[in-house]
Amino acid sequence: MFSIFIGTLFGNTAVVYVQDNIGWTLGYRLPTLGLLISLMIFLAGTPFYRHKVPFGSSFTRMARIMVAALRKWRVHLPSDPKELFELDLEEYVPKKGKFRIDSTPTIRFLNKASMKTGSTDPWMLCSVTRVQETKQMLRMIPILVATFIPTTMVAQANTLFVKQGTTLDGSIGSFKVPQASLGAFVTFSMLISVVLYDRFFVKIMQR
Prior knowledge:
Layout: H1 2-21, H2 24-44, H3 58-71, H4 128-138, H5 141-146, H6 148-165, E1 171-172, E2 175-176, H7 183-205
Antiparallel strand pairs: 1-2
């Protein structure tokens, strides 16, 4: 995150200054060069990445959980989660990125997708691990919703701030601040916030 903000700050200051005072040709060459360098670094680290072979659509697996749970909405859940359907431990190989996840009491309705009713159809019976994976995705929805407000604020920095800059006197002595560089103040404050969060807030919350 810190490196992303550093790149954004560089783009809002140095690149904008070059584009306004030197030329757009060099202004576009700088980010292109940076992109090529980052791409080479990314490719150089390929041997160290964890490679997972794709095995179907995640949305399809989530849809199966929803459909299976709805089709068995009248079935009562057992008090013991061990009675739910789960694959054998041999099916889960950590080296291949397959991990077993135990059942949790949250969003219990989806646990009905693992109820054994005689049918083994994937749209009727799903393993506990698959159900838990779907729950993990659903728990991300509040985080997604929470990002709407800060994302709207960031959009203002890229539009309204620049519009306001056209009506301001951006001169600081003999130096004139480009209007598009006003977004750098937001980026700079976020850089400070990241440091404060990592060095102080996290340590305070861990006590």
